[in-house]
Fold this protein.
Amino acid sequence: MRKSRVEFADMRASTLAALALLLFACGSSSSSSAPTGDAGGGTDATATGPDAGGGGDGAATGDGAAAGDGAATDDGGIGGSRPVAVHVPPSYVQGTPMPLVIMLHGYSVTSKIEETYLKLTPLADARGFLYATPDGLIDSQGNQYWNATDACCAFGKTVDDSTYLSTVIKQIQARYTVDPKRVFFVGHSNGGFMSHRMACDHADQVAAIASLAGAMNLDVSKCAPKQPVSILEIHGTADTTIDYNGGANAGFSYPGAITTVNDWVTLDGCSATADTSSPPVDFEVTLAGAETTVTKYAAGCKPGGHAELWTITGGGHIPSFSPTFAPAVIDFLFAHPKP
């Protein structure tokens, strides 16, 4: 299905409304739903400083952060004019390497809204990882976006979000003790597209990504990772915003979920024989039974490579996830560090 820019924006507006309703429902119901803001015992530090979106590594300098006891501060300019919040879990100790998870929001929503949906902050405290939540720039329609591929979602703008996010990684590494073998991205929709872009452009920095309702660039020649990256694509078959089978936005096509994963099978040097032996999983609370099938490509991969697809049969663009979903995503990432 081909969508014009206006149609896509209108569709995203309706999607945003659906997300708001979903978050309201979650916030007014079960104990499995996390509150907005800092739901854990760690500390959130937001820095400002020189613009990190240009060239160079923009690395911060300083004496390092304290343990996650509320005393941590960011005085090194993480994110520059686009300040990035870094949640520091209570277990953080300067000098002891800790994983870093960077979450990328979808088109038209903020990192705070996306976090309310994904609920990764409590997991950062429970599992012990630094958690960064950058925000994209705002377009002429007032929507935040990432310049990931032609199809999503800068629509002609030339902002270099790839370099910006690479710089953010370096700045966080300069400020905190980050395990360089465990730097991960989690992205939804436009953030999923951008997570794939980061795996393509900065495979030397990124160990693994998890993309919900995202996609690769249709032109796979634009993806030239320097080393293997483990990838997880999660996609609903009833997604009408980013179609499971592929489609187009503003006249630019994007591949479907199966093609996206198969592209990574090739890039990671994996065997094309799929492993479908894992039992279905029940992640989506509004769908009956175990609706999510797992397809893995692990055999023959180059060290550090792995490709996996979680297909949510009947799932939409904003699935209503059970409390088991986010931990499963973190489990996947932690199981795939760099060699």
Summary: The CA atoms of residues 196 and 243 lie 16 Å apart. Residues 5-27 form the longest helix (23 residues). The domain at 2-334 is CATH 3.40.50.1820 (Rossmann fold). The chain has one domain: 2-334.
